[in-house]
Design brief:
The complex is a heterotrimer of chains A (252), B (263) and C (259). Chain A is mainly α and 252 residues long. Chain A has helices at 3-25, 35-47, 50-82, 84-97, 106-113, 117-141, 145-153, 158-195, 201-210, 215-240. Chain B has seven helices and ten strands. Chain B has helices at 60-68, 107-112, 120-133, 149-162, 179-196, 207-213, 244-257, and strands at 16-29, 32-45, 49-53, 75-80, 83-84, 92-96, 167-171, 199-204, 216-220, 227-232. In chain B, helix 3 packs across helix 4 and helix 6 (207-213) crosses helix 7. The chains are: A mainly alpha (252), B alpha/beta (263), C mainly alpha (259). At the A-C interface, helix 1, helix 4, helix 5, helix 8 and helix 9 of A face helix 1, helix 4, helix 5, helix 8 and helix 9 of C.
Chain lengths: 252, 263, 259
């Protein structure tokens, strides 16, 4: 790659930042911050110690809700998917529950758990549970029969067939499902924090706006949300690149 | 293959390895029943190399799957060494083209798959032996996606042989390979068979392949499949594929299937 | 594995059985918990009837659907051509892709304050949020769809003497279509998720507003759950429409799993 080609994306970002800057400056009564004001906003948040605190709070909720959902939903999904009849039994129920926006559960989770961490964790749990269960069901359904036959041919059955054939065969699909679901969980935590708790990056955005129209902090919060979301996604993608799993993603 | 090979007597062992009696198989789909196999009777001798030959989709694979215990017949029974077949068994290994190798295991891992009961040292020894036999040295740590179709095929054969089964079921194993690799693989398979004398049932739709490999060729009709005829290939290995007897047997099968061997 | 093939009746029997068990469990769990806030299934049915009678339900459904229709429609109209262009010109995607990847993980709901500044509280804000939420997934799916078209197809097209425009229209677009449709379906799911959230925060009509309003004005949890069920049913219907599209023969090839 020539230096010009390598530098082009950076120039494009600079150009967008420039447009942003001048679009804001050209307004008479400007509310939205310029890029530079956003940077100083992030620095201010860091100095006040809020940034780390809120990031930790958001990640804490996502971790508990998401990990809890993964631990329950994936084994359940794999078990349901293994038998044609249980899959038939659960599928319609899942299909109706799934499109219910997890945020629509906010009133119920507040009723059950009160305003606070548990309500937010419960929402993330809900948001992750059904997608992960579907992932499990589809992953089992997608195992080529030939692998199962080969495993049985070498004398495997029961738990050993699960550990040595079924589990490795579904892992690549599970990781894709986990990555997509983590994205949803990250989307939901922000929304949940805007409504149901008083800490975290979502709360930061709403609070900065309500308490004095500090839009530089609002946009600073958004930038942080984007960066952490990107980081989580990159982390999951790096799992997909591991050599022993890569077969599941090859295009051929 | 060496020139001064001692002539082995044609494999007509007395002992029966596999016996299929009165096999019928129907599949139900959307309320309609399709008959795939009709009244198949088959005997395979210990150490025999048997080819099932028939047009694509005729049901020969179904018969092979029944013999291996992956499917149960609608009526009839298969016995191996006198015991009825009720399911797959590591004493007889099925080779599924190259699709059966596990993509999440390396070459070594695949060969070791059926060897869990052996000690580490024994495993290593077997792995090394069979990797050498199928010529995959240098690829021990490679994953199947890094291998060509022919290499994957050899890997699957190596994995099957490593557990030292007394029977092999091969379902069009060389169908997906290019013609040169296919010829080499046929030679390899014969060499292994002559060395270890496993009983082999080999499904193919390639007449030349059947006549080159088998002791007996079972010619099957189109669906529902019945055994049309059984042709004994009484030529010693290595076979001269331009000898008059070879051509005679080959053309006999072409005629049997209803194809004039002319283009 | 050794079980027989399920019969035709079982296709209906098992789902009905699970749904029945679920409803009975719900009914008795509410009774057992002695909750006078959380409703049982009967009360929810009553709530749904009340909403129908008052005529608000249809109005709210229409509001939610029209917001999704406009926001998502715009995202589709702009996102698909944009994504196709990026996929077609690798240089363009090399320049633009980093920005897309950075924008994408920003929760669409985090845009709410900005949307309110730009468009005020009201419909336009909600539509803007839905547009944002669906635009990036559609662009990325279209871009990857074009990129993943096997070069064999392009070569075959060129071999038959197609001009670049024709090549795009007759070869690349149809080949990328299955992936684009999957992207569109996923984006519609996200849009439906976001409209509910946006309506909870930024407007005063629609199913999301119904959920929050039923709670705030008098803890009417029967209406909350009735609204949630409507959200689920409509979301399912939208999804099924798209799955129908995926079944069309000229598209379906892209979804067949190779054995």
């Amino acid at each position: 790659m020539s230096p010009w080609v390598r530098i082009r994306p950076a120039l494009f970002i600079l150009a967008l930042l420039g447009i942003w800057h001048f679009a804001v400056v050209s307004q008479q009564n400007r509310i939205l911050p310029t890029p530079w004001e956003t940077v100083t906003g992030i620095i201010e948040l860091m100095q006040r110690g809020l940034l780390i605190k809120y990031i930790v709070a958001s990640l804490f909720r996502v971790t508990w809700g998401f990990v809890g959902a993964a631990l329950l939903a994936i084994p359940l999904g794999l078990a349901v998917g293994w038998f044609r009849r249980t899959e038939m039994a659960f599928n319609p129920l899942i299909q109706i529950l799934r499109p219910i926006s997890p945020l629509a559960w906010i009133p119920i989770s507040i009723l059950w758990f009160g305003v606070g961490d548990v309500a937010a964790i419960y929402l993330i749990f809900l948001a992750s549970f059904l997608p992960l269960m579907m992932t499990g069901i589809n992953a089992v359904g997608g195992i080529p029969q030939v692998y199962i036959n080969a495993g049985r041919n070498f004398g495997l059955s029961g738990a050993r067939l699960v550990i040595r054939v079924l589990y490795p065969a579904v892992v690549p699909q599970l990781i894709i499902g986990l990555r997509i679901t983590l994205g949803i969980a990250w989307l939901v935590v922000v929304a949940a924090e805007m409504i149901a708790v008083n800490s975290g990056l979502g709360f930061l955005i709403v609070d900065a706006r309500n308490a004095g129209n500090r839009y530089d902090l609002v946009v600073a919060g958004m930038v942080m949300i984007g960066m952490i979301g990107l980081m989580l996604d990159t982390l999951m993608r790096s799992l997909e690149k591991s050599r022993a799993l890569r077969w599941g993603y090859s295009e051929d | 293959m060496t020139e001064e090979k001692v002539k082995t007597p044609a494999a007509k062992a007395v002992k029966t390895k596999l016996r299929a009696t009165g096999i019928n198989k129907t599949f139900k789909r959307d309320g309609t029943e399709t008959s795939v196999l009709e009244n198949v009777e088959l005997e395979v001798a210990q150490g025999e190399f048997l080819c099932l030959l028939g047009p694509s989709g005729c049901g020969k694979s179904t018969l092979l799957n029944i013999c291996a215990g992956f499917l149960s017949p609608t009526t009839g029974t298969v016995t191996i060494d006198g015991e009825p077949v009720t399911g797959p068994d590591p004493r007889r290994i099925f080779v599924f083209q190259e699709r059966g190798v596990f993509p999440w295991l390396t070459v070594e891992g695949n060969i070791a798959f059926g060897l869990a009961k052996l000690s580490k040292a024994e495993q290593a020894e077997r792995i090394a032996h069979y990797i050498k036999m199928v010529g995959l040295q240098g690829f021990e740590k490679a994953y199947p996606q890094e291998l060509s179709g022919g290499m994957k095929q050899r890997l699957e054969v190596a994995r099957a042989l490593a557990v030292n089964p007394d029977m092999l079921f091969l379902d069009e194993p060389f169908g997906a390979l290019d013609s040169i690799t296919r010829l080499i693989m046929r030679g390899e398979l014969l060499r292994i068979w002559e060395a270890e004398r496993k009983t082999i049932i080999f499904v193919t739709h390639d007449i030349e392949e059947a006549v080159q490999l088998a002791d007996r060729v079972v010619v099957m009709s189109a669906r529902p499949a019945t055994i049309q005829t059984i042709v004994e290939i009484d030529i010693e290995h290595p076979r001269d594929i331009s000898s008059p007897r070879y051509l005679e047997l080959r053309d006999g099968i072409f005629n049997e299937i209803g194809l004039a061997h002319k283009i | 594995m050794t079980l027989s093939q399920p019969g035709k009746w079982e296709k209906y029997f098992w789902p009905v059985l699970t749904a029945g068990i679920f409803l009975v469990f719900w009914h008795y769990a509410v009774i057992a918990s002695k909750s006078n806030v959380f409703p049982g299934p009967w009360k929810v049915l009553g709530g749904a009837q009340e909403l129908m009678r008052k005529g608000v339900l249809i109005g709210y459904i229409r509001d939610s659907l029209s917001r999704v229709g406009v926001g998502y429609g715009l995202a589709m109209l702009l996102g698909v051509p944009f994504g196709l262009t990026l996929g077609w010109y690798p240089a363009a995607s090399q320049v633009v892709n980093p920005v897309i990847q950075m924008m994408r993980p920003i929760s669409p709901l985090a845009w709410i304050p900005v949307a309110i500044v730009l468009f005020g509280v009201g419909n336009t804000s909600a539509v803007f949020l839905i547009f944002l939420a669906s635009f990036f997934p559609i662009v990325v799916a279209s871009m990857n769809g074009v990129r993943n078209v096997p070069s064999m197809y392009r070569r075959a097209g060129r071999n038959f003497g197609l001009s670049p425009g024709k090549l795009l229209a007759k070869v690349v677009f149809p080949a990328a279509l299955p992936q684009i449709i999957v992207g569109l379906r996923i984006a519609l799911g996200i849009a439906w998720l976001v409209v509910v959230a946006a309506e909870m925060l930024a407007v005063d009509s629609g199913l999301g507003y119904l959920v929050i309003d039923a709670r705030n004005s008098g803890n009417r949890y029967d209406l909350v759950i009735a609204a949630m069920i409507m959200i689920g049913v409509i979301g399912l219907a939208l999804d099924l429409i798209f799955r129908r599209l995926e079944q069309i023969k000229s598209i379906r090839w892209g979804f067949r799993l190779e054995a």
